[in-house]
Design goal:
Order of helices and strands: EEEEHEHHHEEEHHHHHEEHEE
Bound molecules: L-homoserine
CATH class of the largest domain: Alpha Beta
Structural class: alpha+beta
Helix content: 25-40%
Oligomer: single chain
Radius of gyration: 19 Å
Largest sheet: 12 strands, mixed
Number of domains: 2
Number of helices: 10
Shape: globular
CATH architecture of the largest domain: 2-Layer Sandwich
Number of strands: 12
Amino acid sequence: MSIRVYAPATIANLSVGFDLLGAAVVPIDGNCLGDRLSVSKSDAEIQVAISGPWQHKLPTDPVQNIVYQCAQYFLEQLPQSARCGLKLDLEKNLPVGSGLGSSASSVVAAFFALNELFDQPFDKEQMLPMMGELEGRVSGSIHFDNVAPCYLGGLQLLLQAPGSFCEAIPAFQSWFWVVAYPGTSLSTAQMRALLPAEYSRSDVIKYGRFLSGFIHASYRNDPKLAAAMFNDVIAEPYRSPHIPGYINAKQSLADLGALASGISGSGPTMFTVTDSLETAQKAAQWLKINYVTDPCGFVHICQIDSTGARRI
Ligand code: HSE
């Protein structure tokens, strides 16, 4: 038996929820923006084959590949009697170091597929810490704001409380999320190293106000209030000078009528939000001409992917 799965791209932080909030996204034109992975049992050890448009960016030694490490880790959690060889085929469709949750997509695809293959020995509360642990090996620190929405879909708020690792937040169905990847890579570890170790009291209070205000507005179905909350006091001030063209793009997108824009994860992808398809198309066009700097860059108009990882 072979299990084939898809795990979507994600926007972590969403400006207001550094390390605590993330969203899964899907292009409205049906384009694929997420890794696909197949897994089956085998007699041999763990074997990994890689294909897809971004395979050349991954380590050539399979043992170094994150899906190999996921498989190894997953097997270690099973009773000895259940362990076996595995064959994994990863279709790498997301650019590494893009800010679109590329490593999370591979990790979630691997764990989700393995859990299906072994008849779901682990539940959501057990799966998320495993996913975070493995994703942390790539990004340099453990945070769940990519793996949680990638796995579960929608907007996910990290609580890490007993019995409630994360919770889905209502998403505005009328919003379009334009994501623009310029074609260059940034290391999450390096982008995290830019952040201060401590924040002022006033920034802590602002962070609490913007995040709680956004969550409140989402539950009250008040998109205007939610859009007004999109302010990032934790990461954007320190990261934006290191993302070429970001500051100018944010201003230009506001001039085009976007509700808000921000850094997707640790960048360099940026996202812009609008409730009008026409504005989304104008923003996408502007970003293609002005923000994408490399031929491998791209822009997609997306909506929230409410499903997350799934069998295909
Ligand atoms: N919250 C993380 C960060 C996401 O911004 O560093 C990285 O993908």
